[in-house]
Amino acid sequence: MHDAGRIAEWARLGLSRSGGAPLGSARWLGTAGTWCGTARVAAGRDRPPGRTPGRRATEGRVRRRGAPPLDRWLSTLPGHIADSTLDDYEDTVRLHLKPALGRHKLTALTVAQVDALWQAKRETYSANSVRIMRAVLRKAFGQAEREGLVARNVAALSMPPRVRTNEGRTLTIDQAHKLLDQVNGHRMGTLVLLSLVFGLRRGEALGLMWDGFDPEAGTLRVTHAVKRVKNRAPGAERKTKLVISELKTRRSRRTLCLTPELVDALKRHRAAHNAERLQAGQEWTEHGLIFPTAFGNPSDPDTFSHLFSSLARKAGLGHWHPHELRHSGASLMLAQGTPLHVVSEVLGHASIAITKDVYGHLVEGDKRAATAAISGALLGRRKPVAPRVAPNDGEETG
Predict the structure, then answer these.
(1) Cys-Cys link to 46, which of 42, 262, 317, 394 (CB 3.0-4.6 A)?
(2) SS3 labels along the chain
(3) Three state DSSP letters for 282-348
(4) What value does the mean pLDDT take over residues 375-396?
(5) Among 6, 103, 98, 95, which Cα is nearest to 46's?
(6) Does the pTM of the predicted model rise above 0.70?
(7) How far is CA 372 from CA 216, 359, 368, in A?
């Protein structure tokens, strides 16, 4: 074993080659996201050939319990979170956290340094992007704190950015009519209709399954989503792939109630779907999807976004994104007097607090009506009450 290799191995184990007392060592995170370390080399047979006692530094594989904290944390996530979420975490670590923190000693990183990082990022990125960076670093440091690598979670103690919630554009009733008229008869027209009515996420809409449609009960279950994720298969030709994944949370897995008009629209779509399947013949790949490609495969979310934008332009509305159908659906439900908690359940939000943060301003009229009602009951003009006539001398007053 080379000298540097021996030093690295002894530092990793914290022991001398003969199994004696632990060697003195130090560690820090290198510029490339790898551990750097020094190991005190004892005299005698524990000393690598050609080296004198003292500290020698080596950069690379000097670790404590495995990889650097960020990499080690990422390695624990597969199987516990969605592949698309893991992709986002990896990109955040690679593009933002490692380049900024690689020169800092892990155990010496301060809250002030992390705050300075967020302040610098805000010059280029949105507050929401910085919020995501902070959340990822907080999770990674939480893992390091549990393993005893750091005394406290400086990311959790750092100042979170103030994120202003913006619900985005919403279609008016007139614009919605123009859009639905344009997509009527298109093979993805029913998808646009359901996305608008129920505020479906793009991946959820593309992941709707025929076995979740019950025309007799008038219900449609939302259980899956189509996503594009990194292709982690060894030797894969393409870097990404489409997957159909189950929705993870109880609130996101939900049952939608269909009106007779929506049931009929899905029945007509199923007839056209079956005709496409017969036409495709042996080239058809069955996945059980309500809105697949012409050959049965999952529809690419980005392809649908381009298609939807084209349909919106043809309707005279200009460029629109499918996610704006979600905002439009929520706004239209609230405008029709749907209670906020019902809208939250239909949208599949994790909690009603999210719905309130995003769409709470749309129920301003309801709050004013409620205030007027209670104010009228307590402070409104009361009917005058006739004074009681004083009793005669002969009447009992007790």
Answers:
(1) 42
(2) CCHHHHHHHHHHHCCCCCCCCCCCEEEEECCCCCEEEEEEECCHHHCCCCCCCEEEEEEEECCCCCCCHHHHHHHCCECCECHHHHHHHHHHHHHHHHHHHCCCCHHHCCHHHHHHHHHHHCCCCCHHHHHHHHHHHHHHHHHHHHCCCCCCCHHHHCCCCCCCCCCCCCCCHHHHHHHHHHHCCCCCHHHHHHHHHHCCCHHHHHCCEHHHEECCCCEEEECEEEEEEECCCCCCCCCEEEEEEECCCCCCCEEEECCHHHHHHHHHHHHHHHHHHHHHHHHCCCCCECCCCCCCCCCCHHHHHHHHHHHHHHCCCCCCCCHHHHHHHHHHHHHCCCCHHHHHHHHCCCCHHHHHHHHHHHHHHHHHHHHHHHHHHHHCCCCCCCCCCCCCCCCCCC
(3) HHCCCCCECCCCCCCCCCCHHHHHHHHHHHHHHCCCCCCCCHHHHHHHHHHHHHCCCCHHHHHHHHC
(4) 58
(5) 6
(6) no
(7) 43, 22, 6
The per-residue pLDDT for 80 is 85
- pLDDT digits over 70-129, tens only? 888 898 998 888 888 899 999 999 999 988 887 777 778 899 999 999 999 999 998 989
Tokens 């496409």, located at residue: 276
Query: Residue 240: beta bridge partners?
Result: 230
Least confident of 18-27, 212-221, 322-331, 378-387: 18-27
**pLDDT over 70 at 18, yes or no:** no
CA distances to 7, 20, 88, 152, 350 from 77, rounded to whole Å, are: 31, 36, 12, 21, 21
pLDDT at 290 (0 to 100):
98
Provide the 10 A C-beta neighbour count for residue 38: 19
| Residue found under tokens 């990194």 | 230
* Joined tokens for residue 86: 């893991």
At 263, list the tokens: 């049931």
Q: Is residue 59 within 8 Å of residue 36, measured between CB atoms?
A: yes
The C-alpha atoms of residue 226 and residue 243 are separated, in whole angstroms, by 6
323 or 365: whose pLDDT is higher?
323
Query: Which residues is 81 bridged to in the sheet?
Result: 78
141, 147, 186 from 152: Cα distances, Å = 8, 11, 56
